[in-house]
Design brief:
- With 495 residues, the chain is an alpha/beta fold.
- It folds into 3 domains: 77 residues, Alpha-Beta Plaits (2-Layer Sandwich); 290 residues, Zn peptidases (Aminopeptidase), CATH 3.40.630.10; 82 residues, Sandwich (Immunoglobulin-like).
- The protein has 12 helices and 21 strands.
- A hairpin with a 6-residue loop joins strand 18 and strand 19.
- Helix 10 packs antiparallel against helix 12.
- The protein starts with a helix and ends in a 5-residue tail after the last strand.
Length: 495
């Protein structure tokens, strides 16, 4: 019987559908490791590294892969000449994930810190150096009401000083624990090297440095207590069943109120579920409280993984108003951090503008130059030697940002011309700013403003506050290094 063309087409489409369905429903209940394999080798096995999605490839770095596989796949890989080591077989996927990321003990390696250990370290340093470091409660977690601490470091932490702020934060996503490790080592570096290292001493004397080592404390506990190495969101009981299940949690890095409507997912249970509304989560409110408390110039938000730095922004082909300077700093930051392989450095890319993430919110609302650093590549939990390598490499990035906090740019105090009282006023540079961002304002305590700017250029500035005359100052020249100072007095409107 000769089959017609239409019937052949139907059978072909049916074959494609059945094959695809079979692939989707492959039962992979083995955890395997293949050493001495590169990207080309993975491709030869029909595996794309960009398929990294916890359904197949879990870990791939240093020329070895750890992945989930079926018995048939193991046989196929062996036939291709690869030495396949079976690490574990289990019908419960979570047990396979624990073995992959925690190792043979199924417990997080001791070189990583729990949140209690981090805070205990801070408490010990505070007792030894009470003028240099202290912890400040900035909020509580959504589910378990744990204290969220910011660690303040400066040469006199017990008073608010008229100094620029540098913010380091980590663990919006609870499984991305390398950021907490970098933050912890940074705390030790700044305190232990003060008065011993000239550059560290200069940073501590010149800035108020705030470090939030863990934002998502409830989720971080799930990961560091060895319950689940891939828990990402916070632990809000979204479905109100009093059980932590796959439907629970909100992605804290999709919950900020800047283009919130366009980013993340509205689907409960999605790994990028953005919550019912902006700032629905206490953790995000805690960060907003901190941004309202202190005028920050620069910020790093740590994530994992990818060895890439995202910065504001590509918003439907519109770049951020400070794009050239943001790009310069992001590129310098990226080039200061070596990749895990050590053969190159991180890369810098503009992130999307239509997301409710930290870098869009920090920059769009407050003018903070925030950079998301995706630490490491191939895994988010390294063995101890890998953890040390990633941490040390990323500390060089922090140092770069701390150096950039000295300018060039413009700073000054804004005061009431009659009373001398500090004013929180708008500082507007029309040649730079667009309607995509909020107007930049000075802080209320000191009337202080900071604007990182291109040097050797002139800018026209508008200083504005309700109830006061607008002051326009033209052709303000920004010197080549350091901060150019421009203090301003505003005259109250005549009644």
């Amino acid at each position: 019987m000769i089959m017609g063309g239409k019937m052949k087409k139907i059978l072909f489409l049916l074959f494609v559908f059945v094959s695809a369905f079979a692939q989707i429903n492959i039962k992979r209940d083995y955890l395997i490791q293949i050493k001495e394999i590169n990207l080309e080798g993975l491709k030869n096995l029909g595996i794309k590294f960009e398929d990294y999605n916890l359904d197949r490839v879990l870990i791939f770095y240093d020329n070895h892969v750890v992945m989930l596989a079926s018995k048939d796949e193991i046989d196929y890989y062996s036939q291709k000449g690869y030495n396949v080591e079976i690490l574990m077989q289990d019908t419960v996927k979570l047990n396979l994930l624990k073995r992959a990321y925690y190792g043979e003990t199924l417990k997080l390696p001791d070189c990583y810190h729990t949140y209690n250990e981090i805070i205990s370290l801070v408490d010990n340093l505070s007792r030894s150096y009470p003028k240099l470091i202290k912890k400040i409660i900035i909020g509580k977690t959504t589910k378990d009401k744990r204290n969220i601490y910011a660690v303040k470091i400066s040469n006199n932490v017990n008073i608010e000083q008229d100094k620029p702020g540098i913010l380091i934060n980590a663990c919006h996503h609870s499984d991305e624990i390398l950021g907490a490790e970098i933050s912890t080592e940074l705390i030790k570096l700044l305190i232990n090297q003060y008065k011993k290292n000239d550059e560290v001493t200069k940073w501590v004397d010149s800035y108020e440095i705030y470090i939030v080592p863990v934002i998502n404390i409830d989720g971080h506990y799930i990961v560091t207590s060895s319950q689940n190495p891939v828990w990402r969101k916070n632990t809000r009981d979204v479905n109100n069943n009093n059980i932590l299940d796959s439907l629970d949690g909100v992605d804290l890095n999709r919950n900020y109120d800047f283009n919130w409507a366009f980013g993340g997912s509205e689907e409960v249970g999605s790994e990028r579920y953005k919550g019912e509304y902006p700032f629905s989560e206490s953790e995000n409110n805690a960060i907003r409280n901190l941004l309202n408390k202190k005028k920050f110039v620069l910020s790093i938000s740590y994530h994992s993984q990818g060895e890439v730095i995202y910065y504001p922004w590509n918003w439907k082909d519109r770049f951020a108003p400070d794009d050239s300077l943001l790009t310069e700093i992001a590129t310098g930051l990226a080039s200061s951090i070596k990749t895990f392989n050590g053969d190159t450095t991180y890369k810098a890319e503009r992130g999307a503008g239509t997301v409710g993430q930290s870098y869009t919110y920090f920059y769009g609302k407050y003018g903070v130059f925030d950079f998301i650093i995706e630490t490491g590549k191939g895994t988010h939990i390294y063995p101890c030697e890998g953890r040390e390598k990633v941490v040390n490499s990323n500390l060089e990035g922090v140092k770069y940002i701390l150096r950039k906090g000295f300018g060039p740019g413009l700073t000054g105090n804004i005061k009431d011309a009659k009373t001398g009282k500090p004013l929180s006023a708008i500082v507007w540079i029309p040649s730079i700013e667009s309607e995509d961002i909020s107007r930049r304002v000075s802080d209320s305590k000191f009337g202080r403003y900071y604007r990182l700017l291109r040097p050797n250029k002139k800018y026209n500035l508008f200083f504005m506050k309700e109830g006061y005359e607008v002051k326009i100052i033209k052709d303000v020249y920004i010197k080549n290094d350091g901060w150019t100072t421009l203090n301003v007095e505003l005259n109250p409107l005549k009644k």
